[in-house]
């Protein structure tokens, strides 16, 4: 494995980056006002991936549980920040950040540890060469699902305020009053991964499988790994979305079963 790997030069990457410049030029010409965001995002991606490469080299050399745990925690904290930043309406204070971070921490960590200790079984089980990439793939998809689900929850509650308050006034518990809103929010958070599974293989070849094949792995071996990762992603996304939506809905009521929209703030 790896004998047929085609090494990329910096010139190859520079040539590919011209496509980003092309899109920036089109944005400028069509007055979309996205060229700055596009270029900044591309530059940020290059810097972040370069730093990640340096960190991973150090991690793979040391195989330290402390360093691996520190990197994993940093990834979770940044994921929580991204979730909070994607909300049109947020819970006051640190609640949105806390809900997002806690839900992805719980979901991604449980699924990642399960995979490392039962399916992949590296020695040691926390080996960063396996733990960090798997956590990253699960975390990224869980983050997207939680962000979409929470955003749908908050915006729908604000829109359906009258109906929810009427149910609460009639004596319904918060779970019953929020039932339709919770269902819609959970569907919003889970639809992306459902669509991704449905399209995998026929419409798109996932990144992990493609990377392994390009690195010289046997296609069937790569497919098995990709199936495992997709199942793990579904598990992590589902757990994260369910936890975040239920906690968010509970936060929007109080012990007297009143709707607390005063706890919501519009994003700046």
Blueprint of the fold:
Blueprint: H1 10-29, H2 35-62, H3 65-85, E1 89-91, H4 95-120, H5 128-159, H6 161-169, H7 174-177, H8 179-199, H9 207-214, H10 219-251, E2 264-266
Q: In which order are the strands of the major sheet placed? A: 1-2
In whole angstroms, how far apart are the ends?
50 Å
Rg (C-alpha, Å): 21 Å
What gross morphology would you assign? globular
Tally of structural domains: 2
Low-confidence stretches: none
Number of strand elements:
2
Number of helices: 10
> Main beta sheet, described?
2 strands, antiparallel
Structural classification: mainly alpha
Q: Helical residue percent?
A: over 70%
Q: H/E element string?
A: HHHEHHHHHHHE
Mean pLDDT: 90
Q: What fraction of residues sit in β-strands?
A: under 5%
Would you kindly provide a written description of the structure presented here, covering whatever features stand out?
This protein is mainly alpha-helical. The chain folds into two domains: 62 residues, no CATH class; 203 residues, no CATH class. Strands 1-2 form a two-stranded antiparallel sheet. Helix 5 runs parallel beside helix 10. It is globular. It starts with 9 loop residues before the first helix and ends with a strand. 29% of the residues are buried.
Structure keywords:
mainly alpha; 268 residues
